Amino acid sequence: MKEVEGVGKTKEEAIKEALSMIGVDSLDELGRDYNYNIEEVEEKGKGLFGFFGSKNVRIKISYERRELLKRSDPNFSPEEYLNTIFKLMGISANIEVFNRDDNELFLKIHSDDRGIIIGKHGETLDAIQYLLNIVSSRKGFEKNLYLDLDGYREKRKAYLKRVARRAASRALDTGKTVSLNPMSTVERRYVHNLLKKDPYITTKSEGREPKRRVVIYPVGGRGGRKDSRL
């Protein structure tokens, strides 16, 4: 099972933060496709000698995709289905297929209609990949499908990594929160996972779609980088 942790002043806030890392907005939404378990890990930050100040609640959500009884369709081809989607969109594209490992199939797309396929910040590409995985799963296809167009995803990840780390440094240097630009669920999850191992900051997703964004909080207030190391 996969695991994520969330921290908040209340259990509800901690759960909300953990859900944002998974990429869903509610436990009901998580329960549609996943079996999950919620565990309260610890409470910390009680203040001086444990008597004064607020305390934070830390929870852990363990989750795994619910397996459905399904039969494999021998006539189903992810590549052909993707080509059908592109034809319906009026797009001409060439697709190369690679086995990344036993669990993932990589569909590499080449097309002159880059802007249409990728969409704003990759949202259309993400939507096509999500749709293709849903259909493939229902057809009994066992592998996860990963789509990319001319190396877009790796370039976008490199950009997000630079932006996120620069913003984290700014939050620590100034002791103030820093908000990133609105991102898709996939990109927010990537940023959360990228920064979650840094003990001097915490991240949350805030706002409503389509303006939901990652906000970076320094730990320890102003001058968080120095204070958090004392």
Task: Give keywords.
230 residues, alpha+beta, GMP Synthetase, Chain A, domain 3, Ribosomal Protein S8, Chain: A, domain 1, 3 domains, three-stranded antiparallel sheet, three-stranded mixed sheet, 8 helices, 39% helix, disordered C terminus
Provide an overview of this structure.
- There is one protein chain.
- With 230 residues, the chain is α+β, with helices and mostly antiparallel strands.
- The chain folds into three domains: 1-67, no CATH class; 78-150, GMP Synthetase, Chain A, domain 3; 151-230, R3H-like domain (Ribosomal Protein S8, Chain: A, domain 1, 2-Layer Sandwich).
- 39% of the residues lie in helices and 27% in strands.
- The chain has eight helices and nine strands.
- It has helices at 11-22, 27-33, 78-88, 114-118, 123-138, 152-174, 185-195, 224-227; strands at 2-8, 34-44, 56-65, 94-101, 104-110, 144-149, 178-179, 201-206, 213-218.
- Strands 1-3-2 form a three-stranded antiparallel sheet.
- Helix 6 packs across helix 7.
- The longest helix has 23 residues, at 152-174.
- It is globular.
- It starts with a strand and ends with a helix.
- 21% of the residues are buried.
- Residues 46-52 and 221-230 have low confidence and may be disordered.
